[in-house]
Amino acid sequence: MAANPNKPTRLYVVRWMVAGALLGAFFTLVTWRLVGGDAGSVTYAELHETYPTLWMVDLAPSVLGISGAVIGVLFTRLAESKERIEATAREISAGWISELHATNVELAEALEARGRFHAAVTHELRTPLATILGFADLAEGAASEARDMSGYIAEIAKAATAMQDLVNDLLDAAKLESNGIPIEIGFVSCEEAIDEVVGRLAPLAGQKGLEILVDIEDGLGCRADPLRLRQVLSNLVANAIKYSEEGTIRVSAFRQMNGVPVIAVKDEGIGIKAEDLDRIFSAFQSGGNGQSRGDSSGLGLAISESLARAMDGELTVESAGPGQGSTFRLTLRAPNHQGAERRTAHLTRD
After folding, report:
1. How many Å apart are CA 201 and CA 207, to the nearest integer?
2. Residue 149, SS3 per DSSP
3. Residue 189, beta-bridge partner list
4. Burial class of residue 260, CB neighbours in 10 A (0-12, 13-18, 19+)
């Protein structure tokens, strides 16, 4: 037989009711005894004839019994309310503890990511700085011996450019995290933007023996900020060069079936591990560990993704895995009108 959950409550009320009834009966008997004590042995009827108001005393057991039942119900309700309040307090406390624990975990992960970021930035700055200092010493020696210094100067310039790019990323990230970066969206020719970026980075690809192939649909335009679109494309193409040792880099631009313009950058480089795909656009994260592809400082791709979103675009990535190359796709808005739009880009946080 299943237990009745209301049985303890009922017993509690019955106890109070019986206690009240017994108290009332005791009160009635004492009253009768006091009233009839001087008269000797009298009957119940004779007492009532002598004291007509004695009927009120007869009601004492019933009144006190009912009162006991009411008190029992009240105390039961108070006890139940106390239990509910305590249970609710425990649930709220558990929720707060859980949220606090989750916040602490997120904070620890953020601090760990910041630590990795600072280590990566330090390494990224130290490498070109060592190059600059080393070739500066060689150039100084060559100058004293009247030798050709053009190769040394080229290496110094390349290292200084790498440092400048990293500093620019740091400044952009700081702006995106604070007040944001203002952008102005208007019509942009995809062909002009791609040709400019590829033309500037083609010598860097040539130094590594890489070939950049460009395939652009005729008359393709988009709605974007010209400067920031070139910044995103530069980051994608530069990363493709950085993480490729051989093969071809393909930059293509085309319209989807719905007329939306897409720019794709495909390389045959070291690829991206599956576990890095979900976090490769997160700030202060890096997928680059010598076996997988990622932005070393963890900033360039995060900045690019934030700028793409601010332009109502989307930046996505695909890779079959390490050694299988990568494809980044930048989806943009169709040039449906010519009016300028001013916005502010902020660092994306997923």
Report:
1. 10
2. coil
3. 221
4. middle
Higher pLDDT, 117 or 274: 274
Distance of CA 252 to the CA centre of its chain: 33
Tokens 């997928």 -> residue: 287
pLDDT digits (tens, 9 = 90+) for 103-130: 888 777 766 666 666 666 666 666 677 7
**Structure-block tokens of residue 15:** 């106890």
pTM over 0.90: no
Do the Cβ atoms of 250 and 266 come closer than 8 Å? yes
Residues in the chain: 350
Q: Which domains, from first to last, does the chain contain?
A: 7-98 (no CATH), 113-176 (1.10.287.130), 183-345 (3.30.565.10)
Dig out the tokens for 155 from the structure: 């290496």
Backbone angles phi, psi at 266, to 5 degrees: -115, 130
Least Cα distance to 336 among 260, 254, 269 occurs for 260
Going by their DSSP bridges, the two strands 211-216 and 248-255 should be labelled as parallel
